[in-house]
Design a protein that fits this description.
This protein has 286 residues and is an alpha+beta fold. 58% of the residues lie in helices and 20% in strands.
Length: 286
């Protein structure tokens, strides 16, 4: 073997040794160094690090914030009302060594345990509150209390729960239909009551208008009678004054009015013009 061959194989051997000795840590990772299967170090910073080949090995885990978005769950409130709650949580690895010891670094197993922890917390919280308190109450305080209790359990797995979010709270589909039907019935009842009140008020307005018409007509009739009476009285006074001034002319005028009333029309009367009523005719003949 020539010297060149020895140098070539030596270089390859050095590269292999170095590659198995040096490892790099990314800022998005959590890295664990195992020595013969036992945890040796778990606090690596981003950059280049060294290990003993064949004896020591490296385990890498995702160091970013991870999401668990499970399907909606049913929870009972303090008054046994069933609610459908859609939520999710954010978590990350806080202690790499404890995380590896608790769940063997299995992210799916960790997610399952975290979901059970948060799910139990939500169930307990809903069980002590009414629907109105859950939907319209201080949900931020409720979630903060759940987060605090859940983190006490998750720390044993080396995990920090960053946030718990409730996306939606609703009734189950069958209850939704009943609620909407009840709301529709209530609205129809209110509409019917409003229409009945409107009809009653309209009847009152019409009745008042009818009373006002009758009262107005009666007052007008009474006023007309008073005016006619006053006019008749004035006419009588005028006639009386005229009779006092010229009795013969007044009597003559009255007889003319009487002639006009008697001889009005097309009827033919054959009578003898005698008597007090026809004395004016007798005078004309004389």
């Amino acid at each position: 073997m020539t010297i060149l061959h020895k140098l070539f194989f030596g270089t390859i051997l050095v590269i292999i040794v170095l590659s198995s000795t040096i490892f790099f840590v990314d800022q998005r990772e959590r890295v664990l160094l195992l020595h013969l299967g036992e945890i040796k170090r778990a606090d690596f910073k981003p950059g280049m690090h060294f290990k003993i080949p064949l004896i020591e090995s490296v385990k890498r885990f995702d160091g970013r914030i991870l999401t668990i978005d499970a399907k909606p769950e049913n929870y009972l409130t303090g008054r046994n009302k069933n609610l459908l709650v859609d939520s999710f949580l954010l978590w990350r690895i806080a202690d790499t060594g404890r995380f590896f010891t608790a769940v063997s670094g299995d992210q799916r197993l960790a997610s399952s345990r975290l979901f059970n922890i948060v799910n139990n917390g939500l169930r307990d919280a809903f069980a002590t509150r009414t629907v109105n308190e859950v939907v319209a109450g201080d949900r931020t305080t409720m979630v903060a209390d759940i987060l605090e209790q859940a983190n006490k359990s998750s720390r044993e797995m080396g995990i920090e729960i960053v946030s718990i979010r409730i996306k939606r709270i609703d009734f189950p589909a069958d209850i939704n239909d009943a609620v909407y039907q009840r709301m529709r019935t209530d609205r129809l009842q209110e509409a019917n009551e409003t229409r009945a009140q409107g009809a009653e008020q309209a009847e009152e307005v019409r009745a008042k208008a009818d009373r006002d018409v009758i009262t107005t007509l009666a007052e007008a009739e009474q006023k007309a009678k008073e005016v006619r009476g006053s006019g008749d009285a004035q006419a009588t006074n005028i006639y009386a004054e005229a009779f006092g001034k010229n009795e013969e002319f007044f009597a003559f005028n009255r007889r003319l009015e009487a002639y006009k009333n008697v001889f009005d029309g097309d009827d033919m009367l054959v009578i003898e013009p005698k008597g007090e009523f026809f004395k004016d005719f007798s005078r004309s003949q004389d």
